[in-house]
């Protein structure tokens, strides 16, 4: 099992400086997203089958973030949901999801957020979950996790029977995955749905205990990792390893729950 409390060190001064820069990126994105939230706009569909929405706010926010990174750290790589990747010329790469939860965004529901992650040698060291409409910004780094500048921690949980659980949509769990989800849902005290990245913010602040997801992409995941770990929580794939390309993710506010939860995540 991965040592979930271990994050690669970039030093306190670098952590502080790069976290402050990540907040500048969130400010730049917020100028775009708030201009379009709950306003009339065209919604495009990225899929030939199904519905995967994208808007001028998604693209504009990513463009604003990219411009600031390229002007300030031209050697840093950039990988975002809406634009082609820019290869890194060193150990740092930014992973961007300008609007995580575009479906919520176009419905006027403020559970979407801007996700910004900085990878050092391939591992996330800084993460931002920004919900500008609610004026809530969660920043995680090796220095810890803050909400609007104030330190936050996850909460203790005695086990599944006392846990508040969340997932975006139970229909995303396919075949054996659905049986796993149903088991956790049955054993948990309460479950909430369709909160997008905001569920992870709530977990880091000590209000949720367990989040289970599948089908996630790197830009959905990487910013969440430093936020949750910096607050004292645990986030891994379903096997207890670093989150990877299979897109399966489990987040625990209390790492002590892993002994009960991880053995149930068998497909």
TrEMBL record:
EC nos: 3.1.3.15
Query: What's a Pfam family in this record?
Result: Inositol_P
Binding, Mg(2+) 1: 81, 97, 99-100
Protein name (Swiss-Prot/TrEMBL):
Histidinol-phosphatase
The molecular function terms in GO held by this entry are:
histidinol-phosphatase activity; metal ion binding
UniProt family annotation: Belongs to the inositol monophosphatase superfamily.
Q: Does the keyword Magnesium apply?
A: yes
What are its cofactors?
Mg(2+)
Keyword Methyltransferase among record annotations: no
Biological process (GO) annotations? L-histidine biosynthetic process
Q: PANTHER family annotated for this entry?
A: 3'(2'),5'-BISPHOSPHATE NUCLEOTIDASE, PHOSPHATASE
């Amino acid at each position: 099992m991965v040592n979930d409390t271990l994050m690669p060190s970039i030093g306190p001064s670098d952590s502080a400086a790069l976290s402050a820069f990540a907040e500048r990126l969130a400010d730049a994105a917020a100028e775009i997203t708030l201009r379009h939230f709950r306003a009339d706009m065209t919604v495009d569909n990225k899929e030939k089958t199904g519905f995967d929405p994208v808007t001028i706010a998604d693209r504009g926010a990513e463009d604003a973030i990219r411009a600031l990174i390229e002007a300030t750290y031209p050697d840093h790589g950039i990988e975002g949901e809406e634009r082609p990747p820019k290869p890194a010329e060193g150990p740092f790469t930014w992973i961007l999801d300008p609007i995580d939860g575009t479906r919520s965004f176009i419905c006027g529901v403020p559970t979407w957020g801007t996700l910004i992650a900085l990878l050092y040698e391939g591992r996330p060291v800084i993460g931002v979950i920004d919900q500008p409409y609610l004026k809530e910004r969660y920043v995680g780094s090796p220095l810890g996790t803050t909400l609007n500048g104030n330190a936050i921690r996850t909460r203790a949980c005695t086990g599944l029977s006392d846990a508040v659980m969340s997932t975006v949509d139970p229909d995303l769990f396919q075949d054996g995955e659905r049986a796993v989800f149903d088991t956790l849902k049955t054993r948990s005290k309460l479950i909430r749905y369709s909160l997008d990245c905001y569920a992870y913010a709530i977990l880091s602040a000590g209000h949720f205990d367990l989040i289970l997801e599948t089908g996630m992409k790197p830009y959905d995941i990487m910013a969440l990792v430093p936020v949750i770990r910096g607050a004292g929580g645990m986030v891994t794939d379903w096997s207890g390893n670093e989150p990877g390309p299979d897109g399966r993710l489990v987040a625990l506010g209390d790492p002590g729950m892993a002994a009960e939860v991880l053995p149930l995540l068998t497909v």
